Amino acid sequence: MSVFGGDRVCAAADCGTILSVYNPSSRCVIHDEREVSLQARASRKDRPSEARRCGTPACERWFESPNPKRLFCSDRCRLQAFYEHRRAAADAIQ
Q1: What's the burial of 28, exposed, middle or buried (CB within 10 Å: 0-12/13-18/19+)?
Q2: What is the CB-side half-sphere exposure of residue 62 using CA atoms within 13 A?
Q3: What confidence score (pLDDT) does residue 24 get?
């Protein structure tokens, strides 16, 4: 990780914020133009939900989630799949 000068102040007019030694920019987070593009991204609540079947073989439920990586309908099903996978791995070792 690069380290920059320790006594740097934000270059924006009337801003006396002391910049972090890890901040490569000449401006603080409030005045950095790159921050504007990050704020324009859509939040998770704005994403469309997808309906899919739970990843646990014993569960036949359908669920909706805006997260495309979510595989299980609930924490109970997620943990059940985890322990089944762990048990199968232990059986394969023996």
Answers
A1: buried
A2: 4
A3: 84
